[in-house]
């Protein structure tokens, strides 16, 4: 009886319609995730005026939502090992879509906050599982690029949120902006039918027939019949899943991933929640300020596509560290210029150094850990990162009450990019799963030069 390794078949496969389907639906889910996260920042000026709340209160609502995403990242990252990434993705998509749409019917800030926190659970849980599933099924040669491209959906959703808000807010108010978030609820049956379950999860649960059908779609030339058996995955060892992230000399890198993710989410949530208000304070109109949100995410897309591919070729650290540095410089300079074109360019750089870096980081983290702890590793990193998302909205809200110059406000935020660059620099790639010595099948990226 011939023994096959499912991971080897996936790694060596050519790009097929099966992969396109995964990219399409995962891209759509992350697009709606990005839309849901950014719409709050787009409507903050309207909510402050309508409900007569302070900037500190508005920032706190953003922080409470981010707290929900942190809990969701950990909770659903762990549940994926028992329920499977696909089922968790479906559950989380329902959660964030339903409760974001319900937020439009909130009569005041209290109920609005409750709905946003529950939506945050889904927003936090869906991302690590989309990363885990898409990483597992991506051919090795395009793994980082494929995962990074999927997370361009986040930026597309953010752009849609900014532009839709700009066109709707003056005439219809902020509620319709939230209604659109319910769209994924109509498509759940199609998503459930199209997305495959994790190959390693199917094998661990003994569902070999389902796994055979999936592998046939990946590579029709591979004969998968009753005479074929599968190499068993690495057995899960007893102990707390989070503790395993610190074993086999991974402790320093795990902590550095968490710090880098924290820094990215400080930048992302500071910009998504407060960029319109920051640009209004700098002398721009609300409409122009929402265009800045769109430009930031155009930069994020360009950064993800271009630099995601470069990460496959040159290594993650050689790409991410310079991007962080560029982001810090752009943030420090944005408050000094009144030239609109230059401001757009700097905002685009900030997008590449925040959302773009996080998208590339998702691929980095997902390949660093072995498949048996991939969801846990991503979930833990993003959960710690969400602490930055909790911290940033309230911190910037307080910063705005100090009546400092725009230059000082942006420079203070830029410190997060400096911290993130240092953290990535200290990640020890020599202990990564894809660089373990003597491993015939590494399940990760091509071997890179390690430091």
Structural class: mainly alpha
Specify the overall morphology. globular
Q: Could you tell me the strand content as a percent range? A: under 5%
Largest sheet: 2 strands, parallel
Mean pLDDT: 81
Give the beta-strand count: 2
**Portion of residues in helices?**
over 70%
Order the strands across the largest sheet as they lie in space.
1-2
How would you describe this structure to a colleague?
- This protein has 451 residues and is mainly α.
- The chain has 18 helices and two strands.
- It has helices at 6-11, 17-51, 55-83, 85-102, 109-137, 143-150, 152-172, 175-179, 183-194, 199-204, 208-218, 241-244, 251-281, 286-314, 316-334, 340-368, 374-401, 406-425, and strands at 2-4, 228-230.
- It has a two-stranded parallel sheet.
- The protein starts with a strand and ends in a 26-residue tail after the last helix.
- The model is unreliable at 437-451 (pLDDT under 50).
